[in-house]
């Protein structure tokens, strides 16, 4: 079946999948989807060329992409992505959390990688189109959601290395996901990596660039070898300023109760500016906890944890929302945060954010965008 649907000025050609899952098959898949392995019936594709700009927008059956072996992105890694979720609200509607912020970040990543910007309307229009046809894939189970993965890569064919590609493919795929960490919110043990760095000044750390992840796997493997769950990245120059944990931003809680205050590493250009991070910087003061963007060294982290001044540490990001850090290991030894269990500030902020995302708390910030 072919039809078309106009969203945000660009017309999406709609080709429905002849192999759409039946409601029973879908329900079985949504029962325990895990993370990132089950995909919906359709995907969005939009092409770009220098002459035409963005064109040929489609909703089509989910499936493989055929590429010439000399496709530029396979050789020179011009590829960026985003990650956000669609949530089922109690009234049955489907909503995203701050998709405009993802659109803006996608375009900042594009600029850094010498790729064309997509425009917020087209980015959100792609999400709207996919949710219109695959909205039934948004699970209603607690802590479940439909993870949305927009991405863009270079499609010029040729090995010339001096110039960015002149053609690109934007795609949006969607994957129902259950709770990110199975077994509930468990504190993680982290490894302070002194052997590897994620991002250097002037580099690509601020962009959601695929290569940043490729470069992180060995450090993550080293963390696992050390009996840890996640790697903590330190700055590339002095190897002592804390930047991020894996693919999540970090928060440090000093003091407790009404006197608690939060510190998160400042965006120096080597950190990924998380939308969850930004949201918590606004939410925490509303709950009575001041926030500060600052600098934390590994020495200060250890000393403050040992003295009890530092009471909680957590990581935050779209996929896992908020994850407490219970234990820290590094080449110089190890220590525990608080008593190693999730602290009250961590737990309260997680509840608040999750309630906003799932629509059980009124959205006073204009962060929720409802679709169908
Ligand atoms: C995506 C990402 C984050 C978290 O960003 P959110 O917008 O909160 O999901 C943090 N660090 C890195 C390296 C990331 O890629």
From TrEMBL:
Belongs to the class-IV pyridoxal-phosphate-dependent aminotransferase family. Keywords: Amino-acid biosynthesis, Aminotransferase, Branched-chain amino acid biosynthesis, Pyridoxal phosphate, Transferase. The modification N6-(pyridoxal phosphate)lysine is found at residue 208. The keyword Amino-acid biosynthesis applies. Pfam families: Aminotran_4 (PF01063). Pathway: Amino-acid biosynthesis; L-leucine biosynthesis; L-leucine from 3-methyl-2-oxobutanoate: step 4/4; Amino-acid biosynthesis; L-isoleucine biosynthesis; L-isoleucine from 2-oxobutanoate: step 4/4; Amino-acid biosynthesis; L-valine biosynthesis; L-valine from pyruvate: step 4/4. GO terms for biological process: isoleucine biosynthetic process; L-leucine biosynthetic process; L-valine biosynthetic process. It catalyses: L-leucine + 2-oxoglutarate = 4-methyl-2-oxopentanoate + L-glutamate; L-valine + 2-oxoglutarate = 3-methyl-2-oxobutanoate + L-glutamate; L-isoleucine + 2-oxoglutarate = (S)-3-methyl-2-oxopentanoate + L-glutamate. Its cofactor is pyridoxal 5'-phosphate. Residues 1-23 are annotated as: Disordered. GO terms for molecular function: L-isoleucine-2-oxoglutarate transaminase activity; L-leucine-2-oxoglutarate transaminase activity; L-valine-2-oxoglutarate transaminase activity. Its EC number is 2.6.1.42. The keyword Glycoprotein does not apply. Residues 1-21 have a biased composition (Polar residues). This is Branched-chain-amino-acid aminotransferase.
């Amino acid at each position: 079946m072919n039809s078309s649907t106009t969203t945000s000025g660009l017309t999406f050609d709609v080709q429905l999948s002849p192999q759409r899952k039946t409601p029973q098959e879908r329900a079985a898949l949504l029962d325990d989807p895990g993370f990132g392995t089950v995909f919906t019936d359709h995907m969005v594709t939009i092409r770009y060329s220098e002459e035409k700009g963005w064109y040929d927008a489609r909703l089509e059956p989910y499936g493989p992409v055929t590429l010439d072996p000399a496709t530029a992105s396979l050789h020179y890694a011009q590829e960026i992505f985003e990650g956000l979720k669609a949530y089922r609200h109690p009234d049955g509607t489907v909503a995203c959390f701050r998709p405009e912020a993802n659109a803006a970040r996608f375009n900042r990543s594009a600029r850094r990688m010498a790729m064309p910007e997509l425009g917020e309307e087209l980015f959100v229009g792609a999400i709207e189109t996919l949710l219109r046809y695959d909205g039934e894939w948004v699970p209603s189970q607690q802590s479940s959601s439909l993870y949305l993965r927009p991405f863009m890569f270079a499609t010029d064919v040729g090995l010339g290395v001096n110039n960015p590609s002149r053609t690109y493919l934007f795609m949006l795929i969607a994957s129902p996901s259950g709770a990110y960490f199975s077994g509930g919110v468990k504190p993680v043990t982290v490894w302070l990596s002194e052997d590897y760095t994620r991002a250097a000044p002037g580099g690509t750390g601020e962009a959601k660039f695929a290569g940043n992840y490729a470069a992180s796997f060995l450090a993550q493997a080293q963390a696992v070898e050390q009996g840890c769950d996640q790697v903590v990245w330190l700055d590339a120059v002095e190897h002592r300023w804390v930047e991020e944990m894996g693919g999540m931003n970090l928060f440090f809680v000093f003091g407790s109760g009404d006197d608690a205050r939060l510190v998160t590493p400042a965006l120096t250009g080597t950190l990924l500016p998380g939308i969850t991070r930004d949201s918590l910087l606004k939410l925490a003061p509303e709950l009575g906890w001041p926030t500060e963007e600052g600098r934390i060294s590994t020495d200060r982290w250890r000393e403050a944890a040992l003295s009890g001044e530092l009471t909680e540490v957590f990581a935050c990001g779209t996929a896992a929302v908020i994850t407490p850090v219970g234990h820290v290991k590094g080449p110089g030894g190890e220590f525990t945060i608080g008593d190693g269990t999730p602290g009250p500030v961590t737990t309260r902020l997680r509840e608040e954010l999750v309630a906003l995302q799932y629509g059980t708390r009124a959205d006073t910030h204009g962060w929720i965008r409802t679709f169908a």
